[in-house]
Amino acid sequence: MAGFALDPTRRHVAAGALTDRLVTEAAHAYADLLVERAEAGDDVLGLVPVGLAAGALDGALRAAVLARLPATPLLRLVEDADERVRPRDAVALDVGGDDPAALAVLAPLVAGLVASPRAAAGAYAALGVGRLALSDVVDALPAAGAPALWHSRYAGLAGLADDANAREVLAALPVPLADGRVVRGARGVLLPTDDRLPVSALATLSPFGLRVVHPEAAHPLLARLGATTASARAVLQESAVRLAVEQSPDADAPDEVADAVLALVRAALQDGAPVPGAWADGELHWLADLALTDAEVEVTPAGALVLPGSMAAAVLDPREVGVVDADLVRVWGPDVLRAVGVLDGLAVVRADEVDLDDLPARVSGLADIDDWADETGSGTLAELVGVRDLDVVRPQCWPEVLRHMASEPVLRRALVEQVRVSGPDGSRSVPSYTAWWLRRELGTVGLLDPAAGTGLGDLLDRAPQWVADLDDDVRRALGLVGDLGSADLSLAAVVLGRLLDPDRAVDAATCLRAWALLGECAADLDAPVTESTRVLDGAGSRVVALSEAVVADDPKWLQRNDLGGLVVVTPSLAPALADLLDVALASELADGRVRDDGAVADVPTEVTTLLPQAPRLWCEHDRLLVDDVEVAWWVDAGGVHAATTDGLARGLAFAAGRWPARHALARLLVEPGDAVRLVVEDAAG
Known about the structure:
four-stranded antiparallel sheet, elongated
């Protein structure tokens, strides 16, 4: 024990050798005390003198202590808590120095690393502890190390990523890839989210540009540092995988590429991701190009292979498709092989927003798709769904194939649902691609539907029984005819040919429906190369030379049997039908001139009750001659001419533009008292 001597004023410690010696000894003792307490486990950083001195003696003591402490083993090493390090040999991080997990990761890599709580910053500065930038630590990290080791390092450093500046620094961390390479920085690499992703598969695909974090190194920190999280499905969608598939037929080891892609597909299926058959999935349609081996050990695209024992194997021509190698089925199973396009049945091709003038490549697998697009015309489809491989179905298998298409929802939709084509002039509905192709291949357009009414059987051929057994919607999609009411261009072409067949006995009612259909479609039909046409003949019809036929312009010409056999259609369709059949209109063969004016008479007032548009006057004739041919009625610029009551009814109805009202008018002219009843009936129906 010793005391400091005072100066004569007894207000200050006396300067001199004794005081200096005491200060030195006190500093030594203080340093020894801190070592003792540090070894006992106490935190001695709070005992390090910092700040301003209270006086000269305090300043001298502080200086002596701080001269001694940097060389005193006071600080606990992160790597070994039982070992103390001298402050001058210690280093502390500028970022994350108080994060135990980060310190534990970096301690084996940074000699003398000590924890640096923020409260100890002043003490560390006074002790001369070295400051080490986190960026320097990251840059100095060795790239070597097992992927699992890097996973643990990422886990330890994850807490630092809450700071934006620290994230920028950590973004340069080494990242081990699945192929064994190590890259600097996580940006641009794929971070697998599924531990079922096979490392060997990822490594096989790396030469094609696939950069995937090794699954054993994968950690959420990498996503925060710029890596892209990727499920097995997401990896499949990478351009590098597509490139590998496209180049697989020419690869040095196509079987290894195939195994890698199939492994990714299996992982995606196990992950629950929807990976349907490649041709059904627009994004992954290219998977069908994956080179696989067939039963003859030949390399073949997956989309040209079928599963052994499947429906596809039974109905598709074996000269056009191969059977996939049984070993592939055993190793990968049917689901995985179906997902890359190997067929077990009929498959569909889908595409959205299809421009018919610029078809996407993904629909090129549909047989004759360009022909369908040309026939359909310009426009855009919201969705195109078509059944592929129809051109390689064995002919004897069509009954089975169509029954299958009718029962399977996706295939059925591709067949029976019409396609909506949108263009600058509006939208229109046309038969689906699948229906179009089947109609053309099977020749079903214009075949008689078994549910059709009487009469059409004389005009149309009956469908074979296996077609007739299909349901209504499928039969309709195939072009079977139940009536002639719809303006179907394909049907019209068939009907036109059938009408010209002189061996067919076609009744008058069927002829009228057929001519109406032809009139509707005349502008889009090719005129037949023929010298004959069909005309009415009482309750039936017959085929005559073109010169012996005439198209009635309107109902009044039906009285002119002198002009030739009649072809009858509504007035609005008559010119188009005459042009199609190359038959003259009646008005082109006769003037339609009434010989005398007749006697002008008032139209009965009851007529205007039923038909307000009717003329108020008409011309009565005892004998009405038009072009010297006797008729019952006529309408010309001079008005309505009639020689009979029934003729007057027809003339008035025609002149008023209400031809269907002629029968009611005829009754009214005979029984004027029924005017009100007839008006009511007319209004009701």
